[in-house]
Amino acid sequence: MEPKTKQEDGSKGIIDKSDTICIIGAGPAGLTMARSLCAKGIPFVVFEKHKDVGGIWDIQNPGSPMYESAHFISSKYLSNYFDYQMPSDYPDYPSNRQILMYHRKFAKDFNLYPYIHFETTIKEITQSGEKWIVKTTANESYLFQGIVCATGITWSPNQPKLKGEESFSGQILHSLHYKSPNLFKGKRVLIVGAGNSGCDIACDAGANAEQAYISVRRGYHFIPKHILGKPADVFGDGAHFIPNWISQLVFGKLLKFLVGDLTKLGLPAPDHKIFETHPIINDQLIHNLRHGDVIAKPDIEFLEGDSVVFKDGTKEKIDLIILATGYNWSIPYMEKKYFEWKNGRPDLYLTLFNRNFENLYALGYMETDGGAYKMFDEMANLIASYIEAKNNHHPSALQFAKLIQNDRPLLNGNIHYLNSGRHSVYVNQVAYKQYRSKIQKKMGWPELKVGQFKRLETSDSSSSFQTLVSGGSK
User: What distance lies between CA 457 and its chain's CA centroid?
Assistant: First the structure.
């Protein structure tokens, strides 16, 4: 471990950190990577462009896609970091503010703040032999042993061009720039896209706009947030031993019983089986559609003056269009040559290890079918174990290096995900865990164990959450 020091001065040339791992980003992935390296005694520093930890969960973080009404789509019971529960007084689905406090408590309790350089943006990272030169916008240059990219996947908006938008008299915004439902007051609003954020924002519009619409190009399966009184992910968690094709069959029939025929509400019928796309965890939109506060429309044909014409020939006067059309993945501080991009996603071994460049890792560049943070912990432990094995010249390091080059496992759990860029790096959590665990056991690298991070906790960790809530920072 290597906390930052006041004596570091980039004006005198390259700062030698050649035995140290550089983590880019102090969001969820960066924090769990930091804790994992800290536990193994591997020197590291973290660079964060914002003034505090939390990544996308800090609505004040420039470029964050967060909005005031955002909540977790997975429950607190299965979404926590390993061996670090969310507070018992949190609701089943915590708000964005509660999740932000949870991350800050995590960073404080495990004494990660001293290792983080805040308000430091990375200008460029380039290879130097098997090491890496990191340049910041403060004109500092560092030489690091390795790089962990942990800057996330929801910062660069995918904003498609709409036919006729030049003549449209209303306003067009990507959902990245949506923050408050006050934006909708007195307006006729169209949300484009029915992902989880699009559905949330449509519900905000339904409660605040003069009239709200949602344009849906394809059908989706909607999963209620609670099933038989339990959070949906908790309800399904006990069925991992059942083959996925049986789960698809049974759960698909259960949803038809619980949710009904959504084509009666104007939504298109799904053209795929349940779980073959990222699930839509939302029952509030269905409530709004049934009450007419939101009206479902098909894909857009073109814009015309103050109106939108849809592919079914209908036309609606619209003041504001919100494009909930997702994000382009990017690692802007590194040239594209350092990652092999396929379908707009980096091709990485187990979504973590660069196949072509030594000591270059990424954490968080994948999507999955459940809570990610515990999975991030297991992934970070795998990265840290490999780094430790290399530092100790252990034979397993060479074994694993061969796997990085040649091993290409299927991690879909025999679910046929849709053929789209988004699903090209989509992993089934159970399949991923089983395969990762098998490889880790083969290498002789230990799994995470309850209590192993306890020694890292600060002496005042029990009171840190209350300190943060009452306005303390670090």
Answer: 26
